[in-house]
Amino acid sequence: MTKYMDYMISSHPIRVFNPRMDSSKQKIKSLAVINAGHLPGRTMQRASAEFHDWAFVMITGGSGYYQVNGGEIQRVEAGSWFCLFPGASFNYGPYKEGYWDEYYFTVDGYRVQEWLAHWLLYPELVKSAAFDDSLIHRMEMMFMLIDSGVPSNMDRAALMLESFLYDLVSQSDRIEMNNQGSLVLKVIDDLSQSLDKQVDPYDMALRHHISVSTLRRIVHDYTGYPLNEFLHRLKVAEAKNILLNTEMTVKEVGEALGYKDSFYFSRVFKRITGISPKTYRDRVGQ
Asked: What b/e string do you get for 210-242 counting C-beta neighbours within 10 Å, with b at 16 or more?
């Protein structure tokens, strides 16, 4: 390990790990850690930076930005991580007058291509993770293995990094699944609260910041019914409740549920329940 001060990079001591050893003694040939480091309080920004190897950067404090090939400028916050890779140009770093705390690992080996093909998708996007004490401890353990200079420990560091990155990706998948589940519940609840009006799919999609096609897919995947059919079934379920517990006429019930044509309401009710609204009230309400 090399520990030094460089005020162009950070106002705090920087740790850099560059293993010095005969790589031919390593048993893992498909993946090797070339170097790693910890840059607490980094202030330096990079512009049009290019890299010969893959690097993985974890941000545990502060904030900044990340841009690939002049594309969208993505926000980086504590709990973000991103990739640096060959064949692209990067602008990234803390905001002006700001900082971030950075851990990084640079690797070589064709094993990375397997990651990209199967689980490390969209490497050009900033990803999110919860860097708790256990994850930081794992990064420090990798530093210790790299710093030992022992070939078998370098192999262990490479395999540990692979496991570490896989866990970060899986964590992001779980977060996305939780977010998706939350969105589904919000959409279904919104539909359930809209029984007294005609639902405009475009307005509803806009409220939830999704496309109409995504709205329709969410409803179908969750309920097994197309959007319009699910709405009809929600309204018929509510109509059954109203018919049994109020004196409202069939026409009034239909209008209360957004059906301007009472005959159309009756046809929908009968198609779903097998009997007309009036017959339902007479039979079940006795």
From this structure: eeeeebbebbeeebeeebeebbbebbbebbbeb
Instruction: Give the tokens for residue 154.
Output: 């370098």
Q: Which fold is adopted by the domain 194-286? A: Arc Repressor Mutant, subunit A (1.10.10)
How far apart CA 84 and CA 27 sit, in angstroms, is 26
What are the mean pLDDT values of the chain's consecutive 10-residue runs (286 residues total)?
91 92 84 96 97 97 96 94 97 96 96 94 90 89 92 94 92 57 78 79 84 86 89 91 90 90 92 92 73
The domain segmentation of the chain, as residue ranges, is 2-177, 194-286
**Alpha-carbon span 155 to 161, nearest angstrom:** 10
State if pTM tops 0.90. no
Q: What is the largest CA-CA distance in the chain?
A: 89
Asked whether 61 and 31 are in contact (CB, 8 A), the reply is: no
CATH no., domain 2-177: 2.60.120.280
**Phi and psi based region of residue 79 (left: phi greater than 0; alpha: psi -120 to 50; beta: remaining):** left
